[in-house]
Amino acid sequence: MRTTIHLDDRLLAELKRLAAESGRTLTSLIQDAVRESLARRRQPGGPKRRTAIPLFHGTGLLPGVDLHDSAALLDRMNDTDAAP
Question: Which CATH class, in words, describes the domain spanning 1-49?
């Protein structure tokens, strides 16, 4: 199945480099990474669910949150010290 995903430019460059070095396709590399991530979540004692940090407050988006920068959004959501 075809789908569209948005990747940070640095992440995509690293994935392409790894794919070229290993002689694999970008698709197979991404598929394996997703499979590994899902398998870890299924294991007992696997990653715990994180409490989402609100990116919206009141009437709109919080200052400094760019919905087009997925890497920054993930960093913001993973930052447990971030204040709303």
Answer: mainly alpha
